[in-house]
Design goal:
heterodimer, A: 75 residues, elongated, disordered N terminus, B: mainly alpha, 2 domains, transmembrane helix (chain A), CbtB-domain containing protein (chain A), membrane (chain A), transmembrane (chain A), transmembrane helix (chain B)
Chain lengths: 75, 267
């Protein structure tokens, strides 16, 4: 009853119906989204004035409460 | 888009859309939860911190010895803006986590059939693993601290430790999954597989405690600290639970619709 036993009957069909190029493109899109997501997480949880620092740590102060609550280190 | 929905087990792009939507909803739910329950506590913590630093300043006539946390925060944004910032932060974090949730789902369940009726178990199982890896285990080593705790001189060091804890948490859950799968392939039953996975989780917790502890003093009351940490973990829990449920919901609906249409076997 594991997903794998079900999967073995489905995989050969799907490989034929779904061209490898489309699958590669989809994985690239997901990889790009993951990179954007990492930058976003850096901005809200880590940055202390490296990204936006006109007069100090704007991002740090804006996301200040979120950082404390999510357990991210805060000054 | 040339994605044909029918034959593929979990086509990737619709999955990404679902992950983003579920992540956004989960972040909003968690942010509003924290706004209602945790913000009064944080406001109180900041008032106490201001009182503490004012008393310190009165004691030492040398004046300001370093920037106060609360005073510095007030210079740039009002508390009201920071309340909004909490919700925005939670939504951004939810969207980003939604992307990685999609990625993990696509990798872990790449050979699973789409409509085998186990979509809910898969999503909630993955959400539980995410909660353990990124919330509970790291929080047991480095619990969240309210405003008023945290020395700006050690922030880089603490960020390094926190990130290390997150990485160890994720690696630990990958290990637990691998142990679970391998024991299954070796012909062991569910009790052995689950005990093996649990041992991996305990080992991960042990590894986390090999990291050096948080170097900062904690000059706040135990009650405030406990309440804050419980609410922090609750906020994490809301995020992961809503993420898993919202991610699985469309699959549940389509499975129900397929049943109603009288399809004898939906794939």
């Amino acid at each position: 009853m594991s997903p794998h036993t079900v999967g073995t009957t489905v995989v050969p069909e799907s490989a034929a119906a779904h061209p490898a190029t489309v699958r590669t493109r989809d994985w690239l899109i997901v990889a790009a989204a993951a990179i954007v997501a990492l930058i976003a997480l850096y901005a809200v949880f880590i940055d202390n004035g490296n990204l936006v620092s006109a007069t100090g740590s704007y991002l740090h102060e804006f996301s200040h409460d979120g950082r404390h609550l999510f357990g991210a280190p805060c000054h | 888009m040339s994605v044909s929905a029918q034959p593929t087990p979990y086509p990737l792009l619709p999955l990404l859309g679902r992950g983003l939507a579920a992540g956004g909803i989960a972040g909003l739910a968690s942010g509003l939860f924290s706004l209602l329950l945790a913000e009064p506590l944080m406001d109180r913590a900041i008032r106490l911190e201001e009182k503490r630093s004012a008393a310190e300043a009165a004691h030492s006539h040398a004046g300001h010895s370093g920037h106060s946390h609360a005073a510095e925060a007030e210079e740039i944004f009002s508390r009201g803006t920071q309340h909004l910032g909490l919700v925005v932060t939670a939504v951004v974090a939810g969207l980003a986590i939604g992307v990685f949730f999609t990625l993990a789902h696509a990798l872990v369940h790449r050979s699973a059939a789409r409509d085998d009726g186990r979509g809910w178990q898969r999503a909630m199982g993955l959400a539980g693993a995410g909660f353990l890896a990124l919330s509970l285990l790291p929080a047991l080593r480095y619990p969240a601290n309210p405003p008023g705790v945290g020395d700006s001189g050690t922030v880089a060091e603490r960020q390094g430790l926190w990130l290390a804890a997150l990485v160890i948490g994720v690696l630990g859950m990958v290990l637990a999954h691998q142990v679970h799968q391998r024991l299954g392939r070796a012909g062991h039953g569910l009790p052995v597989r689950q005990l093996g996975a649990a041992a991996a989780v305990v080992a991960t917790l042990g590894a986390l405690f090999l990291l050096p502890g948080n170097p900062d003093p904690v000059p706040v009351s135990a009650t405030l600290l406990w309440d804050f940490r419980v609410l922090s973990l609750a906020g994490h829990l809301v995020l992961w639970a809503v993420l898993g449920a919202a991610f699985a919901a469309p699959a549940l609906r389509s499975a129900k619709a397929a049943k109603r249409e009288g399809a004898p076997e939906s794939r």
